[in-house]
Design brief:
The structure is a homodimer.
Chain A lengths: L7 H25 L13 H11 L6 H12 L8 H18 L9 E2 L2 E2 L1 H4 L2 H22 L3 H15 L4 H11 L14 H26 L4 H28 L2 H4 L5 H4 L5 H24 L8 H11 L4
Chain lengths: ~325, ~325
């Protein structure tokens, strides 16, 4: 994310905060992933461990972990009690990228500037690495989040967001909208409402879950939980609009993936419905809605406010 | 499973119990799976719901759910408090079959006597249906198992059994042993010990988890939990040996899948190491170990005892 010129002092603070959080997330992720041991009796085959580490530790903005940690801290948590939940979100996000990149799905060779998992290894290994990461996410939450009631709440939030009515359902609807798999009677109309219904599930649900899990770990009040949920919904859509804009105007070196792919595939995107300027305006409006939603949190919501605005300016 | 002539009275009781449990599991599974609704705003796309229902409700012995329910009842649970955990186990088992059947993995067209998921739908849909089932398993446990402490314990048992050090790791090691994916330095020796190390993870871990989740739901004593764990370990291996024998001698009509595939693929199997008779003896010995492990449960272990012996005679 780049800083916005008019908010230098505040965004510098945000930048340092982001850097520190990303470092903590990186270290925690590495500690939760299986080690690469070339021991036939070792429970996790070395190749599987390598594939998981390749994909998870291969860079990335760590947006979902950052949102989760920020949400917990905005609700009064201190220290780093949200780190396991934050890592679980990144594992689920990474598994979805591994599976989406498969030849039978989006068929992408490049991810985060490196070969996607099935290119670096092979398809079978990539399928299994994704499966293992999804499973590990729930294991880490159940084992590490305290108290148990917060852990259970996190499992439920994560599963609902990631499953058939959330992220996986959104990917399915997206494939259908592109005509890459059949529909079973369900209409997949090319309208803005249909586009938003896909994104609400495909990317929005997990971003919202990041806020919800942060609130759960902090055992937040209902008022704070709802404020964060409204923030998450608005930020999730804004994030997707910027994603669509980056596919039109982004720099592939910074993005670490190809651009222009959406229009090649005839994908429904925000720029296609609203134009470039219209999409930018809609993203800004959503970011402002997100900021407004934080009002009940008071000064503790400062980093989340900064992040919502910084997302508008991101270049990767 | 067929009845053994010498144990008619007892096995009849077991047969009726199995039938009743299977019916309960079937109804509960159907209630947890997303409905097929042709509504574009519906959260779960109709095609995804169809694929999930096709694979889960397409028959199967329901061995893991049955073991889970039996374990809970053997520890004193009454009513059906283990049903959500039992269904979660079947969802995880089914997802693993869907992914294992994919062309990049075992490339099987037939499963439970019907087209496998990617044949009935397509590869992308099958990958997503598997992902959604794995996720739904954790959702159902977190939402339905009571009390919360038992739910959390079940999430952890299930995730540990299903993940990189359990089922997924076993499938990876199996692909490596068949030379279908590379190794990364780890030796994959063709020894009986190496074969058992694969099965302990690939099929054994989830069978053991079925017993552990049943014990967790029943809030069983440590003594009962350990007895069930020893039972599960022995039954898991016995089950796999019978599976290998069925691939040599089974009836494809009853099995609902091809036979002779293991030797075509040059797979390491029990008959290859121990011969047909030696494999039978080993399976019986393990079933007897399983029965002996149940001693602390007293008469409540009767169905589990009957099941361990009936598994030796199964023809599908």
């Amino acid at each position: 994310m780049t800083s916005s010129g008019t908010r230098t002092a505040e965004v510098l603070g945000l930048g340092a905060y982001l850097e520190r959080t990303q470092e903590r997330v990186e270290a925690a992720l590495s500690s939760y992933l299986p080690e690469v041991e070339a021991d036939p009796a070792a429970a996790c085959p070395a190749r599987l461990a390598q594939a998981m580490r390749h994909s998870v530790l291969g860079g990335g903005k760590r947006l979902r972990p950052v949102l989760c940690v920020m949400a917990a801290e905005a609700c009064g948590s201190e220290g780093a009690p949200a780190l396991p939940a934050a890592c679980a979100l990144e594992m689920v996000h990474t598994y979805s990228l591994i599976h989406d990149d498969l030849p039978a799905m989006d068929d992408d060779d490049l991810r985060r500037g490196r070969p996607s998992c099935h290119k670096a290894f092979d398809e079978a290994t990539a399928i299994l690495a994704g499966d293992a990461l999804l499973t590990l996410a729930f294991e880490v939450v159940a084992r590490e989040v305290r108290p148990g009631s917060a852990a259970l709440r996190c499992v439920r939030i994560l599963a609902e967001a990631a499953g058939a009515t959330g992220m996986v359902g959104g990917q399915m609807a997206d494939l259908q909208a592109e005509g890459r798999t059949a529909t079973q009677g369900e209409p997949v109309a090319g309208t803005l409402a249909a586009l938003e219904a896909i994104h609400r599930r495909k990317t929005g649900a997990l971003l919202r879950a990041a806020l919800g899990m942060g609130a759960a770990v902090a055992e937040a009040t209902e008022l704070c939980t709802q404020a964060l949920d409204r923030y998450g919904t608005a930020v999730g859509l804004a994030f997707q609009i910027v994603d669509d804009l980056l596919d039109v105007q982004g720099d592939p070196t910074k993005l670490g993936k190809r651009v222009g792919k959406d229009s090649e595939l005839g994908k429904w995107t925000y720029p296609r419905f609203l134009g470039i300027d219209g999409s930018r305006r809609r993203a800004r409006q959503l970011a402002e809605e997100a900021v407004a939603a934080l009002e009940p949190l008071g000064p503790r919501g400062e980093y989340l406010r900064g992040l919502a605005l910084a997302l508008l300016e991101r270049d990767r």
